[in-house]
Specification:
CATH architecture of the largest domain: 3-Layer(aba) Sandwich
Bound molecules: cytidine-5'-triphosphate
Shape: globular
CATH superfamily of the largest domain: CoaB-like
Largest sheet: 8 strands, mixed
Strand content: 15-25%
Number of strands: 21
């Protein structure tokens, strides 16, 4: 008897909650969060009759409190609707949800029927923090959110993996399930990450659909080349990696928001180590991962710049939307930097080897009982050469100072010696974990003084630096 009453109460509560959520334009989960939040703050609850309808923009992440050099530009990615298609790459979409959320996005998920053969709505929903949607004719989801609202309440729709079938349906304007109905009912930008067997990708029908989708303004990321899930299959058809999809999403969102302060500017970035050969199989190198330089190139591209990234040998993917020039040695790097000039801004983040072997052995050196006497000569200082140039010098030349002691003093000395405008200094002592790690604590050294930024991810350092670059270049253009 008692349990029946509780059940009835439970049902009534759920019904009331669904009603409130629908009136307030929220999902049920969001409504519960709002109610709990108000309760915690001791505020009055919303009555169903007076509840204000939430503005769509209120779902976006607001600006973080401004801190010196802190990642004020973090909320680049806002509300993403992720449509997961039915392919083996669907497992990567779960990681994609995490990556998007890491960047401050709210993510909603739709799984096609086929997608549910590969991943479950439960796992996608758990990662999103709200239930995943699956059915066009599900009375609960239509009442709770509805396919039109799903389409409308997104700043970007990402389809990953986009199967050949989903692409065909979208190109043909079909709308026979929730995913395709949402895609047809939206004016929101759409990003597709195709994934399929190489033969399906190459098929004239898929290529025809691809051309149609591109003509319709749909943006495509990938597919890449490599091994397929099917044993022995290789070719073009692998879904782009989650981080590549996130970077493309960020580019699109910024473009849509008109948030590209470096539009029309050309930025040259060096990144990674250089390898200086000793003989055909050995070389002198350093521990630079290229993460910071690559992040700066990506952030500059996201801010609308034309970016030329000249990078030494690294094990990280090339950033999206930049022209990449691969080099090995300091001499090649210098040559390519010269070729990339003129530029509005040059950022020298590479850990260029200071020395090279004057005459690398033409054959593999053999042991002789004594170590070989290597004659080292100094490489050209690329940063100093460009910074001290009179003609066609970039308006802003930025160097890095990776130090293990006396960080400020060495950086100030480098600024003066090399003649650049700014130095980004950091402590790379092994205990900091900066070399090869994902976080960095930097100090921006200019002729006006030193500004110490909080420890943050290398991506965040890059965004904050790019913001400063845009402000400086635009100030110069206006003066
Ligand atoms: N740099 C460069 N070309 C070189 C050496 C360094 O462009 N041949 C640039 C780096 O990309 C970085 C800055 O100079 O932006 C400082 O690099 P760093 O190795 O710290 O400076 P060095 O001049 O080599 O000073 P030291 O090694 O004596 O600290």
């Amino acid at each position: 008897m008692a349990s029946l009453t509780v059940r009835k109460l439970d049902e009534a509560l759920k019904k009331r909650l669904r009603l409130l959520a629908a009136r307030n334009g929220r999902s049920v989960e969001e409504e519960i969060r709002q109610i709990l939040g108000r309760a915690a703050r001791g505020e009055q609850g919303e009555s169903a009759g007076t509840a204000p309808v939430r503005q769509a923009s209120a779902r976006g992440i607001g600006p973080l409190p401004a801190r010196h050099g802190a990642d004020e530009a973090a909320p680049d990615i806002k509300r993403i609707l992720l449509i997961i298609g039915g392919g083996i790459a669907a497992y990567k979409s779960l990681d994609l949800i995490r990556r998007l959320k890491e960047r401050g996005a709210t993510v909603r998920c739709i799984l096609t029927k086929a997608a549910q053969e590969f991943v479950t709505p439960l796992s996608a929903g758990a990662l999103c923090g709200e239930r995943a949607f699956t059915d066009l004719f599900d009375p609960l989801s239509e009442f709770d959110v509805g396919h039109i609202r799903l389409a409308r309440e997104a700043d970007l729709i990402v389809v990953a993996p986009a199967t050949a079938d989903l692409m065909a349906k979208l190109a043909g304007g079909h709308a026979d399930d929730l995913a395709t109905a949402v895609l047809l009912a939206t004016a929101t930008p759409i990003l597709l990450a195709p994934a399929m067997n190489p033969r399906m990708w190459e098929h004239p029908a898929t290529q025809r659909n691809l051309a149609q989708l591109s003509a319709d303004g749909v943006v495509i990321v990938g597919p890449g080349e490599g091994e397929m899930a099917e044993i022995g299959e290789a070719g073009v058809g692998r879904m782009a990696e989650p981080l590549e999809i996130v970077a493309t999403a960020e580019l699109l969102l910024r473009k849509a928001a008109g948030d590209q302060p470096l539009t029309g500017k050309r930025v040259v970035v060096t990144s990674g180590p250089t390898h200086e050969p000793i003989d055909p199989v050995r070389y002198i190198a350093n521990r630079s991962s290229g993460k910071q330089g690559h992040a700066i190139a990506a952030a500059a591209a996201a801010a609308g710049a034309e970016v030329i990234l000249i990078r030494g040998p690294v094990n990280i993917p090339d950033p999206v939307g930049v022209s990449v020039v691969k080099v090995e040695t300091a001499r090649e790097m210098f040559e390519q930097v010269e070729r990339a000039m003129p530029a509005d801004c040059a950022v020298f983040a590479a850990a260029v080897a200071d020395w090279r072997v004057s005459a690398p052995g033409p054959e593999k050196l053999k042991k002789t009982g004594r170590g070989p006497a290597l004659n080292l000569v100094e490489n050209t200082d690329i940063l100093a050469t460009i910074a001290q140039r009179k003609a066609k010098r970039p308006a802003l030349v930025i160097g890095f100072a990776a130090e293990t002691e006396k960080v400020f003093a060495n950086a100030k000395d480098k600024l003066r010696r090399k003649g650049c405008d700014w130095i980004v200094a950091n402590d790379v002592s092994p205990e900091t974990g900066v070399m090869g790690g994902d976080r960095n604590r930097v100090h921006l050294v200019t002729t006006e003084g030193v500004e110490s930024w909080p420890a943050q991810t290398k991506d965040a350092v890059a965004r904050a630096l790019v913001k400063r670059i845009a402000a400086a270049l635009n100030k110069e253009a206006n003066s």
